[in-house]
Amino acid sequence: AIYVLGDHTLDLREPDRETLVALLKDETVNEELFHVADCVKTREFGNKVFIRGIIEFSNHCRCTCAYCGINARMTRIKRYRMLPDDLVDAAVHAAQTYRTVILQSGEDRFYTADMLADIVRRIKKQANCAVTLSIGERTLEEYRMMREAGADRFLLKHETANAVLYEALHGVPLETRLDAQRRLRGLGFELGGGFMVGLPGQTDETLADDLLTLVREKVQMAGIGPFIVHPDTELAGARDGDPHKTLKVLALARLLLPACHLPSTTALNVKGGMKNALFCGADVIMQKATPFAYRELYDIYPGRDAREVPLEEQYETLRKGLAELGLSAE
Ligand code: 5AD
């Protein structure tokens, strides 16, 4: 397809960086861009919105990501991890409400690949749900064990496609992350990528590269959310990412990757962007299914919802809200 938006021509056979940058900078194309993204989403998924339940099962982390509130340098925070039996129970419970359960944690080496594979196997045996893992980088062999245990999908964002910025924020090269994504794809996981919008030092050129990275790595899902300053991190003095810019990037992702699952990320929801996101290309919403006791402790950025609403009620509230918007919860 070829999209003509204002003075810009975006050719999907050969999406170019200059056009993406120009579209990001041009504020006169927004209405048109959002409308086209919504049309593509509707063509691909009708009025469906896919709802997933996410269990944040450990906030221990070996990484030192500069933006993240649970990074290894945060010595003052209270750490927790769920025991395998409790995690399996929580996932099986969540699966009564959600058809996909996402298991997310910091990079916590307490859980060996063996343990994670066993957890996945037990969940798949007891519940009829898709299992998505979001646990960071592991070796090919480790990923293989999880895949063979029945894990369906894996979320691992590239966070930023600017190699210099990536390394400054993470202390390791971007290629390390891209290699991990490629291992996952090679094993047949449905791969979720994504990045943050508004990281300090990021430009529209970076965002264009972020979008092109999603295309190049052929991700099947992509989480695109605004950076939110966590006051206890080294980025405390920075500014939050712009939710409006995030919506533009999301809409462009929908044009570039028509069939890709694009969540209204939790970070975007924190900024009040959920409703808009659903009409700018997003087709997925994630809801917390973390046991109440741990919700406040999974503090990767401020403003996250830690309310204690039973899953069924939480889902039902969302379903009704979506129905009012003409959307149907799947
Ligand atoms: N602001 C926004 N998103 C963040 N993440 C981590 N820290 C922040 C932050 N301060 C996102 C990253 C990570 C996901 C689990 O949360 O994109 O992949």
TrEMBL record:
Residues 47-259 form the Radical SAM core domain. Its cofactor is [4Fe-4S] cluster. InterPro entries: Aldolase_TIM, Elp3/MiaA/NifB-like_rSAM, FeFe-hyd_HydE_rSAM, HydE/PylB-like, rSAM, rSAM_sf. [4Fe-4S] cluster binds at C61, C65, C68. S-adenosyl-L-methionine binds at E159, R177. SMART domains: Elp3. It holds the Pfam family Radical_SAM. Keywords: 4Fe-4S, Iron, Iron-sulfur, Metal-binding, S-adenosyl-L-methionine. Binds 1 [4Fe-4S] cluster. The cluster is coordinated with 3 cysteines and an exchangeable S-adenosyl-L-methionine. GO terms for molecular function: 4 iron, 4 sulfur cluster binding; metal ion binding; transferase activity. This is [FeFe] hydrogenase H-cluster radical SAM maturase HydE.
